[in-house]
Amino acid sequence: MQIVTEPKTLQQTCLRWRADGLRIALVPTMGYYHAGHESLMRAAREAGDKVVVSLFVNPAQFGPAEDLASYPRDLERDAATAKEAGADILFVPRPDDMYPEAFGTWVDVPDLSSHLCGQSRPGHFRGVATVVAKLFMLAQPACAFFGMKDWQQLAVLRRMAADLNIPCELVACPIVREADGLAMSSRNIYLSVEERAQAPHLYKGLQAGRELVLRGETNAEAVARAIRDYWRAHLPLGVEDYLSIVDPATLQPLTHIGLKALAACAVRLGKARLIDNIFLAEGARPAADPL
Ligand code: AMP
After folding, report:
1. Local confidence band at 79 (pLDDT 50, 70, 90 cut-offs)
2. By the 8 A CB rule, do 279 and 223 touch?
3. How many whole angstroms separate alpha carbon 192 and alpha carbon 208?
4. Which residues contact 100 (CB under 8 A, 6 or more apart)?
5. Which of 54, 55, 87, 198 has the largest CB neighbor count within 10 A?
6. What is the rounded distance in angstroms from the CA atom of residue 137 to the CA atom of residue 145?
7. What is the pTM for the complete model shown?
């Protein structure tokens, strides 16, 4: 595995690979790898002739009061993980090379970016869409792999790829969880022992909502109330940022739960802001392409 820092070097290599008819699979990440990242890398390894993993803590997607400076980093360990998972290139650009002084072009998908996480993280998805568009131009991927944990990100990027005619297939990968149900996240290290003990109840609350739907409840408000009741009882340290029951494709809030409904949430737990989601209706989640 080669570690590449220069955007131009990555682009030249990938253009050459593509001209040779090779299928490039891209996995964009911010590093500090866990099994969720590894699952994306392994899926990319299966799908591509060449695998490019990018590791870039993208300043453009962090708000001024967010954790850009303290975001966990461990390049040495990450490089070993990416190599082990089959990456051909680990792309680790410098922020100044991705955003030189004269940088002035942004990719924005306002309709899908404004609600859910966009409410408390204005500008976040503009930063994500812009950096992923740049990575697509640099790595020339035939396919790119993203986790369903960041469901809104996936929806935004799919819209972007469709709107801009980007010839890359976006592949959604299932959420990888700890044994107790907590969705893996690089930010889980921010949790204190007490917070970590409560954290699995985030997902357990979502599961309680899903069980209600499977027993016949179709009223979104009632399901949201049940999830909040569960959290109030089991996750007292958590402060809800949002809980929304939405159409998984449009992210529009639902009042009635039919075949396609997603409960998505963000909850602050100490220094960590945890996000998670669950499909509420049985059979609503085709494995490969949920949208
Ligand atoms: P990050 O490094 O947190 O920006 O995440 C990079 C990619 O890994 C994104 O596509 C995430 O959705 C995905 N990802 C993060 N956590 C998980 C998880 N627990 N399971 C599956 N994918 C994940």
Report:
1. very high
2. no
3. 25
4. none
5. 54
6. 16
7. 0.96
Structure confidence at residue 287 (pLDDT)? 44
d(CA 228, CA 246): 16
Res. 282 pLDDT band, cuts 50 70 90: low
What's the confidence (pLDDT) of residue 146?
A: 98
Nearest one of 186, 221, 188 to 202, comparing CA atoms: 188
The Cα–Cα gap between 186 and 149 comes to 12
What angle, 0 to 180 degrees and rounded to 10, lies between the N-to-C axes of helices 35-47 and 75-84? 40
Q: Which helix (H) or strand (E) holds 287?
A: none
AA letter at 79: A
Rounded Cα–Cα distance for residues 21 and 24 (Å): 9
Which tens digit of pLDDT belongs to each residue from 213-244?
999 999 999 999 999 999 999 999 999 999 99
User: Residue 48 carries which side chain, given as an amino acid letter?
Assistant: G
β-sheet bridge partners, residue 267: 240, 274
Determine the atom of ligand 1 nearest the C-alpha atom of 176.
20
Q: What pLDDT is attached to residue 281?
A: 83
Task: Say whether 102 sits in a helix, a strand or coil.
Answer: coil
Minimal-distance CA residue to ligand 1 atom 10: 146
Query: Is any ligand 1 atom within 6 A of the Cβ of residue 176?
Result: yes
